[in-house]
């Protein structure tokens, strides 16, 4: 106990070192990026203004953004007229392990070509969007409490309002990133910045949470194809819009995927119903399923059509649901999704044999 207490002073040193290393890696990567976008001439605020803004950020504890603002100001600022920067905490940035172009996009997504003080933000209504420096990506006001002077953007609290407010530049500190940068989405070609969908009048259409859910479904479909569940993956992709459009309220999902799915060429209505019968609007890992009693029922996306656990570990130590064995448990597992591979398609009463 004495030994651990005597080393208490090392914790802030370790943190400072990690922040410095993160800053060096990020700044080097950002400066080495190809200039794929035209750099405006004399478009950034003057050096004295940037020095003052950087000092204000450091005083508020945003050391990495403070340093990057001085070294790679073009990442955050593109207009000589106005800019608002939402500073991400050092602890959040230090945990990122993404490629340099992803980090550049992340920082651009936290800057807007509008100058917005906290008073300006408090005047906006929830559901109002505004643009960022990342082309085609908006952020949305998701909570405003003028009395308490509370503003949330993409469900993230503006924790340090008006860190700097001078000339064309406004800077606020936020509690965390506006978007999830899960390593799950690091495959080339994926839309990494999960932004809300806004219409042409900058009104919120679809929340960032809903957008991320669509992305995760798409990842599941790709994973199923790569694991050999091709016909079911094609079927799920065909009916996904209908499932999301009518069932956006479920917060977690279990998918049972058969290797052969003969109804892939069926009419859209029939295919939709059969695919829904393989989806449970609740997450059940393999261990959680195995802990359920025999004859337990699992509700599916087809009303009044449940799955039944017909055998909990038979003599060959297999879990059987509706006559199908779980042959590939937990082939995909996240906070809200789980996918199990099953030996054959489930039988839906009143329809032809779905396991052919």
Summarize this entry quickly.
Helices cover 35% and strands 21% of the residues. By secondary structure, it is of the alpha+beta class. The N and C termini lie far apart (65 Å).
Please describe what this structure looks like.
- The chain has 356 residues and is of the alpha+beta class.
- It is built from twelve helices and 17 strands.
- It has helices at 2-6, 10-32, 47-59, 63-71, 73-76, 90-94, 100-109, 118-122, 208-226, 230-246, 268-276, 286-290; strands at 83-87, 111-112, 129-131, 138-145, 150-153, 156-157, 160-166, 169-173, 197-198, 204-206, 253-257, 279-280, 297-299, 306-311, 320-321, 324-333, 337-342.
- A seven-stranded mixed sheet has the order 12-11-17-16-15-14-13. It has a four-stranded mixed sheet with strand order 2-1-8-7. A four-stranded antiparallel sheet has the order 3-4-5-6.
- The longest helix has 23 residues, at 10-32.
- The protein is elongated, with a radius of gyration of 25 Å.
- The model is unreliable at 1-6, 8-21, 35-43 and 183-190 (pLDDT under 50).
């Amino acid at each position: 106990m004495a030994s651990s207490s005597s080393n208490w002073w090392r914790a802030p040193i370790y943190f400072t070192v990690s922040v410095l290393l993160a800053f060096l890696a990020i700044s080097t990567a950002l400066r080495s990026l190809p200039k794929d976008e035209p750099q405006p001439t004399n478009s950034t605020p003057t050096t004295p203004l940037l020095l003052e803004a950087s000092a204000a950020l450091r005083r508020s504890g945003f050391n990495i953004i403070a340093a990057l603002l001085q070294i790679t100001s073009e990442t955050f600022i593109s207009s000589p007229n106005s800019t608002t920067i939402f500073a991400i905490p050092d602890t959040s940035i230090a945990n990122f392990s993404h490629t340099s172009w992803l980090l550049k996009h992340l920082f651009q997504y936290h800057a807007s070509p509008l100058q917005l003080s906290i008073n300006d933000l408090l005047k906006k209504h929830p559901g109002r969007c505004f643009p960022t420096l990342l082309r085609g990506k908006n952020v949305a006001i998701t909570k405003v409490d003028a009395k308490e002077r509370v503003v949330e953007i993409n469900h993230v609290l503006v924790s340090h309002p008006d860190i700097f407010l001078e000339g064309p530049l406004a800077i606020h500190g936020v509690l965390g990133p506006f978007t999830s940068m899960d390593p799950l989405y690091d495959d080339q070609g994926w839309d990494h910045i999960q932004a809300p969908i806004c219409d042409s009048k900058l009104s919120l259409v679809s929340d960032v949470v809903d957008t991320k859910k669509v992305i995760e479904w798409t990842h599941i479909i790709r994973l199923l194809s790569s694991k050999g569940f091709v016909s079911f993956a094609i079927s799920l992709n065909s009916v996904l819009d209908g499932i999301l459009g009518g069932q956006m309220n479920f917060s977690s999902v279990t998918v049972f995927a058969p290797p052969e799915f003969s109804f892939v060429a069926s009419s859209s209505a029939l295919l939709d119903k059969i695919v829904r019968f393989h989806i449970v609007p609740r997450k059940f890992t393999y261990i959680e399923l195995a802990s359920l009693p025999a004859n337990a029922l699992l509700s599916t996306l087809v009303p009044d059509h449940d799955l039944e656990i017909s055998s909990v570990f038979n003599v060959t130590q297999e879990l059987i649901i509706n006559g199908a064995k779980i042959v590939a448990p937990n082939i995909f597992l996240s906070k809200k999704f789980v996918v199990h591979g099953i030996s054959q398609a489930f039988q839906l009463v009143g329809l032809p044999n779905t396991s052919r």
